[in-house]
Design a protein that fits this description.
heterodimer; A: 332 residues; alpha/beta; five-stranded mixed beta sheet; 15 helices; B: 299 residues; two-stranded antiparallel sheet; 11 helices; 9 strands; globular
């Protein structure tokens, strides 16, 4: 029986890995086609739309820039005057140093572009073109806007809301030191939004958007990845309320899943230490403590501290401990 | 930089069904989607770009010798409008005239709220050859969207279903440009799955061109699925477990396509899958699939 040669069974292997990978990679490329890529382009100032909707925090309009001054009948004229002054200062410095950071925009119909970031810089460029340039013959001549261009980073279409938010955050991070709580709150919100859209954040994103170093970005990623754990969530809330340090949050996020509660308790719910260790006698309190010891202290206390020099901080501290101990035992 | 190619669309949805591998049930899916949308009260236009005319034959009388549609019931040879066309119309209207003349009158169908622009085998093949030899490709690619942007199509229809030939050509690219949604059917075997790569490339190219309103993938629908076949089960499992492809797979796969094909044949009785008795498993499956597409497109 065992000598009979049997044919083998053909094992069905499905689609080859090569085909599957080729199709998957092409689908992935198609999914992300041109969503978030930008080109660097020179765009005529007349083709730049500053806002989709005029933001509330900015009062200055393009007409104010063209006019080069604020009309006395203008609504919000004081705020506008202040804003225009800053734009003019920026225009002078841009004229001297050129525009150091390119504004960002995306293409809209009719060859125009809509600004995403760099509104003040663009307004300064428009002011400079109309009022400051050496070849200006008629001040405020609007026709000049169709003859002069600035260089922009230009997206071929409106970037996704995730990208827009990243751009906003990165732009703020460049301008100012953002408080840790704001960064953390943005990050959690952004990570949730990315999850909903089937995307995921990377440490590379964080270093680019928040300006973090690589090692820092990895720590932030630990928090992002563990944010749905109840103990990490509690620590995030404490950090946002400034009742926990970011380092403590990272420590809990980095801990093994089963040990996060323990770590949380160790950091935040540990028993109150012996009050003797907690007592600190600041120099500014010494006078008050001396009065307390001599006026309120019992005879026993006074006897025990009689040999101590209360002008020496170490002795005063010791005397205060004796006072507290005696108070405690007497009250019992 | 592309112009705003979507400026002419109001609420019209255009679904193009593409896979450059033949026999994956593009025409059958086109037919049942048309019938389902009609039953949902939508005003439907079917367009057949496949010279094989299978989609056309379900809704319009096709001369089986010439594979051209019969003369349009409303055709008037003395209409002064014909003077404005580059060449006189033959009396029937097919997708070849749609491209060549920039004018067709869609055919009425057995459904009151559905019209149809049929294919014409010889004319379409001839037209494609001429396009390939000339520098007209870009014009052809933009043509269908320009046509469908016209008030007539925008006002008269809610949804257009386009069936494609099993190849990637200027005509297929044209339907992708016109489309708001793309549906990719595939059999559970190597060639059909492989065909999805070129279809995805077309999808990518289209989205790179567009500024707004990206071409949306409805999904990848596994068709002619035979659950007794170990290989097909394996392929389906591979696709579903793939991180990228898995999320696009429409589940469950379609198993009863032979029933659809039979029921939608020219002289079939009943003439539609939707006229089969309610308890039929093929009907249940069809409704489930069509409802999935309907929700994706009209949500």
């Amino acid at each position: 029986m065992s000598d009979i040669k049997k044919p083998g069974i053909l094992k069905r292997k499905g689609v080859s890995e090569g085909t599957l990978n080729k199709v998957a990679s092409q689908v992935k490329t198609a999914e992300n086609a041109q969503k978030d890529k930008y080109q660097i382009k020179a765009i005529k100032l007349s083709n730049i739309e500053l806002w989709e909707n005029q933001p509330r925090e900015t009062h200055l309009t393009i007409e104010d820039i063209v006019a080069g001054e604020i009309s006395i009948t203008s609504k919000n004229k004081n705020a506008k005057k202040d804003e225009l002054k800053k734009i003019i200062d920026l225009a002078h410095s841009t004229k001297e140093l050129s525009m150091l950071v390119m504004p960002l925009a995306y293409a809209i119909v009719g060859g125009k572009v809509m600004l995403i970031d760099g509104h003040r810089r663009t307004m300064a460029a428009i002011y400079s073109c109309l009022w400051l340039a050496e070849d200006v013959q008629i001040k405020g001549d609007i026709n000049r806007l169709s003859e002069h261009a600035i260089t922009l980073k230009l997206y071929p279409k409106k970037p996704s809301s995730l990208t827009l938010e990243k751009i906003g955050m990165a732009s703020n991070a460049l301008r100012e030191e953002i408080p840790l709580e704001n960064k953390l709150s943005w990050l959690i919100r952004h990570a949730d939004q990315a999850d909903e859209e089937g995307e995921s954040l990377t440490s590379h994103d964080l270093s680019q958007v928040l300006g973090l170093k690589r090692s820092q970005a990895f720590e932030w990623m630990c928090v992002v990845n563990a944010r749905k754990d109840p103990w990490v969530d509690k620590a995030i809330i404490k950090t946002l309320k400034k009742t926990a340090k970011f380092g403590q949050l990272v420590k809990i996020a980095k801990a093994d899943k089963g040990k996060r509660k323990e770590e949380f308790d160790k950091l935040f719910n540990c028993p109150v230490p012996d009050k003797k260790e907690k007592i600190k006698v600041g120099s500014c309190n010494s006078k008050a403590i001396k009065i307390l010891l001599t006026k309120v202290g019992s005879q026993k206390t006074k006897d025990e501290i009689s040999e101590l020099n209360l002008d020496v901080p170490a002795d005063l501290k010791r005397a205060f401990f004796i006072f507290l101990d005696n108070m405690e035992s007497e009250s019992e | 930089m592309a112009e705003d190619i979507n400026s002419g669309y109001k609420n019209l949805k255009v679904i193009t069904i593409i896979n450059n591998k033949g026999g994956v049930a593009k025409s059958t899916l086109s037919k049942i989607l048309c019938e389902y949308f009609v039953r949902k009260g939508k005003r439907v236009l079917g367009i057949d770009v496949d010279p094989q005319c299978n989609f056309s034959m379900r809704f319009v009388d096709i001369d089986t010798k010439t594979y051209s549609p019969v003369t349009h019931p409303d055709f008037d040879p003395n209409d002064p409008l014909w003077d404005e066309l580059p060449t006189p119309p033959p009396g029937y209207w097919s997708v070849a005239q749609f491209y060549r003349l920039g004018y067709v009158v869609p055919y009425p169908t057995c459904y009151e709220n559905m019209k149809f622009i049929p294919s014409s085998k010889l004319e379409l093949v001839d037209f494609l050859e001429k396009v390939e030899k000339s520098s007209l490709e870009e014009e052809v690619i933009n043509h269908m969207r320009e046509m469908l942007s016209m008030d007539y199509y925008q006002d008269e229809f809610d949804v257009v279903i386009v069936d494609n030939p099993p190849q990637i050509s200027a005509l297929t690219a044209s339907t992708a440009r016109a489309a708001t949604h793309i549906l990719i059917p595939t059999e559970m075997q190597e060639d059909s799955v492989n065909g999805m790569a070129d279809t995805s490339l077309l999808w990518q190219t289209e989205n790179e061109y567009r500024q707004d309103d990206e071409l949306k993938l409805i999904g990848i629908i596994p068709t002619k699925f035979d659950k007794k076949s170990a290989n097909q089960r394996r392929v389906l499992e591979q696709l579903k477990s793939n991180e990228i492809l898995g999320k696009h797979i429409i589940d469950p796969p379609m198993r009863y396509l032979h029933t659809y094909a039979t029921s939608s044949a020219t002289f079939a009785d009943p003439g539609s899958i939707f006229e089969i008795n309610e308890g039929n498993v093929a009907l249940k499956e069809t409704k489930m699939f069509c409802d999935h597409i309907y929700k994706k497109v009209f949500k």
